[in-house]
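step=encode ok
step=design start
structure_in=
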């Protein structure tokens, strides 16, 4: 069986997301399974080149996993023989110049979202990539979560009848960094560094709604900075200039209304960190990261409002679990394998830079809707 190596410049792998989901659970996991078998039987073998700002962190990471290709010099990494793909998991503000450099070097590009700080920059990258003739993709990991794949199965199977509404709850308490370390980096709370929950999460909600339910047609949003001061990684207090919570209303094609709350200042009283409830004329579903439960019209109980008596119904117990019916791999790894096939054998890949630009567009419109206090239409993007 023939084996083909493919070099991947991985920038930002010393960060939590770049390391855990992309290097450890995706690229190294593909190597641990023996590579990726292509349609013609060739085994594609990813060879990561680790890039970051800290020599000490990169050296430790490489030693931990038996890797020897690492550098703090992106230009040098892009010039290495055999490198075909550039991957970016840096902070958003550093992403655009790095991707431009990768495109100029003729590399295919796969990147975390947001693609850029603004829509103009995202579209410029998409058009530049097209002109260069390279393959390009943006991480849209939630589409590959077991819970949302089950939800998509229900939508495609007509379970809901006419979909009426979507209600989403996402978030958890991120510690301020004083008496307990914060579990998110400090740049997330500085607008000047590309932080903010609208910029981060509206990109997710765009592809989730577009791909699972229906295309987004308008947005209303209210953001808030509930915690005005936090403590950074060096123990220094800093002012929070970005929103840490967002309350959005989205109108989807067909008159469907979606309401999604996103917050890093909420304590979880849910089964999972994100849950979506979809209500339709024939049934409803609640989907999280892994689970999905349904209640069909024929099995819907008939509760009666009576505040004078304690509730006696087990409302959660009236829902049925949607079976897996298949094995679910790590969502980041699944999309990595799809992008690798896209590069190596021209397999389909729908989540390109234009898909990423649509997420940036919704975030930009969400921020504008918040500033102006009004509902904004979401126009189609021209390629």
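sequence_out=
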């Amino acid at each position: 069986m023939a084996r083909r190596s493919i070099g991947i410049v991985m920038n930002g792998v010393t960060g939590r997301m770049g390391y855990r989901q992309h290097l450890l659970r995706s690229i190294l996991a593909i190597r641990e399974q023996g590579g990726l078998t292509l349609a013609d039987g060739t085994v594609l073998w990813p060879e990561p080149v680790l890039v970051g700002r800290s020599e000490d962190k990169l050296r430790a990471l490489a030693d931990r996993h038996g890797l020897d290709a690492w550098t703090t010099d992106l230009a040098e990494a892009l010039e290495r023989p055999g490198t075909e793909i550039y991957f970016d998991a840096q902070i958003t503000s550093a992403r655009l110049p790095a991707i431009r450099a990768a495109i100029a070097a003729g590399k295919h590009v796969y990147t975390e979202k947001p693609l850029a700080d603004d829509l103009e920059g995202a579209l410029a990258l998409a058009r530049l990539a097209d002109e260069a003739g390279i393959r390009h993709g943006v991480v849209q990991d939630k589409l590959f979560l077991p819970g949302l794949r089950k939800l998509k199965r229900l939508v495609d199977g007509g379970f809901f009848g006419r979909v009426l509404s979507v209600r989403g709850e996402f978030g958890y308490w991120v510690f301020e960094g004083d008496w307990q370390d914060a579990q998110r980096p400090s740049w997330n709370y500085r607008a000047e560094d590309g932080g903010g929950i609208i910029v981060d999460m509206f990109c997710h909600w765009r592809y989730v709604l577009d791909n699972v339910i229906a295309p987004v047609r308008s947005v209303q949003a209210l953001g808030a900075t509930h915690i005005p001061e936090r403590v950074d990684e060096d123990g220094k207090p800093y002012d929070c200039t970005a929103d840490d919570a967002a309350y959005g209303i989205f109108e989807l094609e067909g008159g469907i209304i979606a309401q999604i709350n996103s917050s890093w200042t909420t304590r979880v009283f849910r089964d999972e960190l994100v849950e979506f409830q979809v209500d339709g004329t024939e049934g409803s579903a609640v989907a999280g990261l892994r689970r999905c439960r349904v209640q069909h019209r024929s099995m819907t109980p008939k509760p009666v409002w009576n505040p004078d008596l304690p509730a006696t119904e087990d409302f959660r117990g009236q829902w049925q679990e949607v079976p897996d019916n298949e094995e679910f791999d790590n969502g980041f790894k699944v999309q990595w394998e799809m992008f690798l096939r896209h590069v190596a054998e021209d397999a389909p890949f729908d989540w390109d830079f234009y898909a990423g630009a649509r997420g940036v567009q919704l975030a930009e419109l969400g921020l504008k809707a918040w500033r102006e206090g009004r509902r904004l239409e979401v126009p189609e993007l021209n390629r």
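step=design ok
step=annotate ok -> The CA atoms of residues 50 and 334 lie 21 Å apart.
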